[in-house]
Amino acid sequence: MISKVKNFEIGIDSSLSYCSITLFKNEKIIWDKTVKSEYGHEKILSELLQNLVTKTKIKADHIKKLHLNYGPARFTAIRNCHSLMKGFFIDHKVEIVGYSIFEHFFLGINKKLTKNVLCVIDTNRKDLAIQKIDTSGRLVGKTKTLKIDSDLEDILSQNYFLIGNGLEKLKKISEFAFIKNKIISPTKLKSNYFIKKHYKKKSYYKFPKIIYPYSPI
User: Fold this and answer.
1) pLDDT tens-place values along the chain, 217 residues long
2) Core vs surface per residue 8-42: b (16+ CB within 10 A) or e
3) How far is it, in rounded angstroms, from Cα 195 to Cα 32?
4) What is the spatial distance between Cα 47 and Cα 123, in angstroms, rounded to a whole number?
5) 22, 52, 108, 197: which is deepest, by most CB within 10 A?
6) Domains in the chain, please, with CATH?
7) Quick one: which H or E segment has residue 48?
8) Who's near 119: CB < 8 A, 6+ residues apart?
């Protein structure tokens, strides 16, 4: 239970198929919950936040930093996530640390990298978003969108590690069976990845602009 202790940090996410909230301090998790959800993210996040407040007695002014991503992913799901936090912190200025969804996935890697990474994102469309990330976590080049076809197969067969939720869809397709040996996780996005202080991000008192989902083919 939390009393008058302050300087906690909170991470929240609902950008894809999971809703999650993590309360932490000094890279130690205090409370953490993840729920799988294809739809109804706003309701589930609200319930998670209420559960967090009830269990820990945390208040908005106990929290110093808020961590979240700004896409590109499911635009409405991210907007609902940001709106919930705007309401929670309406009477308290909180420092906001924003990440692209690709940086968020990168934070979930628990392996020393010896080669670059491709992050594959699926937002329930006919195409997938592909982003190259170097071993330091820096995004390289622009995000590409590809249909699930031979061109995508050629790219993923190159010398990269693979992360991202789009891999879950590809693993079910026989032509992409080879990716299983290239996946280093994560393939699920969770808020507890934010406890890792890998990126030297500046914090702001303004919510980041949400990146609209990648352009359709």
Assistant:
1) 555 678 999 999 999 999 999 999 999 999 999 999 988 999 999 999 999 999 999 999 999 999 999 999 999 999 999 999 999 999 999 999 999 999 999 999 999 999 999 999 998 888 999 999 999 999 999 999 999 999 999 999 999 999 999 999 999 999 999 999 999 989 999 999 999 999 999 999 999 999 987 544 3
2) bbbbbbbbbbbbbbbbbbeeeebbbbbeebeeebb
3) 11
4) 23
5) 22
6) 8-102+189-195 (3.30.420.40), 112-181 (3.30.160)
7) helix 41-56
8) 102, 105, 106, 130, 131, 133, 162, 163, 164
Residue 90 token pair: 């309406």
Q: Determine whether 173 is exposed, middle or buried from the number of CB atoms within 10 Å of its CB (0-12, 13-18, 19+).
A: exposed
Its pTM surpasses 0.90: yes
Residue found by looking up tokens 């705007």 in the block:
86
